[in-house]
Amino acid sequence: MESGGTVLWLILLASILMWMLIAERYLFVYCVYPASVKKMVAEWQQRPERQSWSALQIRTGMIAQARVSLKRYLMLIKTLTAALPMLGLLGTVDGMIQTFDVLTVFGTGNARGMAGGISIALITTMAGLLTALSGLYFSTELETRVAREVDLMSDQLKRDE
Q1: SS3 string of the chain?
Q2: Does residue 63 lie within any of the structural domains?
Q3: Does any domain span residue 129?
Q4: How many domains does one find in the chain?
């Protein structure tokens, strides 16, 4: 961490936040959401009529409520996934500025000083890209899972039963 500079700490904090949100979404989708689906389906099944306009509006509202609860934090996860490479680029710029500062003061005679700036540039770039790629996979998988769950909810709340 010390060879990555301050930007690497920002990348670490952003990636920890992203992974906490991803873990929370998986826990919600697999543990909490199925119970709420059962409750909504039971509520729908208890309705005496399910074909009127008002019943259709209630069904649409239930599906929208499920969609909103499933999509919570997905935009923030995608935003963090997009911001992490930019933080890596910021670290690259910071490392190159440090390298040019060493070149300005010492010329090409201080290889150790130049290596420190280049190290910051490369480590932050790698960290930003690595965390963004892993977040991209899981955010895409979560979006696919959310779409599938909303479709299943819609199928379970059929109008003509």
Answers
A1: CCCCHHHHHHHHHHHHHHHHHHHHHHHHHHHHHHHHHHHHHHHHHCCCCCCCHHHHHHHHHHHHHHHHHHHCCHHHHHHHHHHHHHHHHHHHHHHHHHHHHHHHHHHHHCHHHHHHHHHHHHHHHHHHHHHHHHHHHHHHHHHHHHHHHHHHHHHHCCCCC
A2: yes
A3: yes
A4: 1
At position 73, the amino acid (one-letter code) is Y
Q: Global pTM?
A: 0.82
For the CA atoms of the chain, what is the radius of gyration?
24
Domain range for 134 is: 5-156
Residue 161 lies in a domain: no
Tens-binned pLDDT, residue by residue, of the chain (161 aa): 666 678 899 999 999 999 999 999 999 999 999 999 999 988 888 888 888 888 889 889 999 999 999 999 999 999 999 999 999 999 888 888 888 888 888 777 777 777 878 888 889 999 999 999 999 999 999 999 999 999 998 888 875 44
**What distance in Å separates the CA atoms of residue 12 and residue 90, rounded to the nearest whole number?**
14
Separation between Cα atoms, residue 54 and residue 45, nearest integer Å? 15
